[in-house]
Design a protein that fits this description.
The protein has 13 helices and 16 strands. It is of the alpha+beta class and 375 residues long. The longest helix has 19 residues.
Length: 375
């Protein structure tokens, strides 16, 4: 076990692994301020994981907020250039309530953004890096993917008015098939449209199989374009040998005011919530008046604390109890001699009785004496 594995928490280990991963694919480190003007977040609360904000009044009288999100700050500050492609990554502290709702916390968040001119490979690369991010944390992972444009085309083909799209998305998000059927009946949709919507809402399977199932449902330009995006992503994931961990789940939905393409969530076995979330958010760029495309994701490192770590049988290998009449040089010599054996050593004159040790060693005038060993 390496030094880092011995002393770092799961979230701390992930930061270093992911920083190395993103850097190896040419993503540049991006640094943002700890706070922004409150309006930046207030106007885009539906884009945030949590709309609870920590605010304060600056010396100039402006209402400021400690950042609950990094993406909005990056978008605000990126120079508009639709011909260029920016690839940035970050590991920053954000301030928000946790999913358990137990007050505000300072949380380390890492992730990446690709902004500007995004072609099919650039989009697929982000999905690949999302999958590799999960794999760096645990081999037992799944990335679920959806496409908001596919759903948008499905709703338009069915004749669903835009006023009811949000309600339908909510029902699909909960996979509530009886409620979906009742809502379709209320809207006066045809049996064929209702059946399509229910089939899409209940679908959950590896992307290889899902593409075969949804192919007959594709109708119109939007659904066809969305289907081709999923095909391209599947092809790239096959090339990276990651496809078997990629599942299609159209119940992953987000606000269509911000997202307009693929979206995805990542899961690790042993953690109930998603630990990664991302997708295309071109419409958010439009809200900022920037004619650019954008896709990215964030890894929620606070949720990694729930991963069960191996419980060490001992707090220290060697507990060295020394006589207070001895000189510092004698104690140092004994400690270094034990450390040369590759052991961790705690040297004390009065040991903590609750400390778990592998070996108890006494240092007196006559030298080292082993008193106790625990297997």
């Amino acid at each position: 076990m390496s030094f880092a594995e011995c002393i770092l928490r799961e979230d701390e280990k992930a930061v270093y692994k992911l920083r190395e991963l993103y850097g190896s694919y040419g993503y540049m480190k991006y640094k943002v301020s700890k706070f922004e003007e409150y309006d930046l977040y207030a106007k885009n609360k539906n884009f945030l994981v949590s709309d609870n904000l920590l605010t304060f009044t600056d010396t100039n009288g402006k209402l400021m907020a400690l950042k609950p999100d990094v993406t909005l700050s990056i978008i605000k500050n990126v120079v508009a250039n639709e011909k260029a492609t920016y690839k940035v990554c970050y590991d920053e502290k954000v301030y928000r309530t946790t999913s358990s709702g137990d007050g505000f916390r300072e949380i380390m968040q890492t992730g990446l953004e690709t902004i500007g001119n995004i072609d099919s490979f650039a989009q697929s690369e982000v999905v690949m890096l999302a999958m590799k991010s999960l794999k760096n944390i645990s081999e037992d992972y799944i990335l679920d993917i959806s496409n908001m444009r596919f759903l948008e085309g499905l709703f338009e083909n069915a004749g669903i008015d835009t006023d009811y799209v949000s309600d339908m998305l909510s029902l699909i998000g909960s996979k509530n098939i009886p409620a979906i059927k009742a809502f379709c009946a209320k809207l006066g949709l045809s049996d064929a449209s209702t059946e399509k919507i229910c089939k899409v809402a209940s679908l959950y399977m590896p992307i290889k199989d899902a593409l075969l199932v949804i192919a007959p449902l594709v109708e119109g330009k939007k659904m066809n374009a969305a289907y081709k995006e999923l095909e391209e992503i599947y092809s790239v994931m096959c090339a990276y040998d990651l496809a078997e961990k990629l599942y299609v789940d159209f119940s992953i939905v987000n606000d269509m005011n911000y997202y307009d393409g693929i979206i995805f969530k990542g899961f690790i076995n042993g953690i109930f919530d998603s630990v990664l979330s991302g997708g295309r958010y071109d419409r958010l760029m439009d809200k900022f008046g920037k004619n650019m495309q954008a896709i990215g994701f964030a890894v929620y490192l606070d949720r990694l604390e729930r991963l069960s770590s191996e419980i060490k049988p001992y707090d220290v290998d060697d507990l060295l109890v020394y006589d207070t009449e001895l000189g510092a040089e004698q104690i140092i010599s004994a400690v270094e001699a034990l450390k040369k054996e590759g052991n961790s050593v705690r040297a004390v004159s009065c040991p903590d009785k609750s400390l778990r040790y592998k070996k108890l060693v006494k240092l007196g005038k006559d030298g080292l004496e082993s008193l106790e060993e625990n297997d």
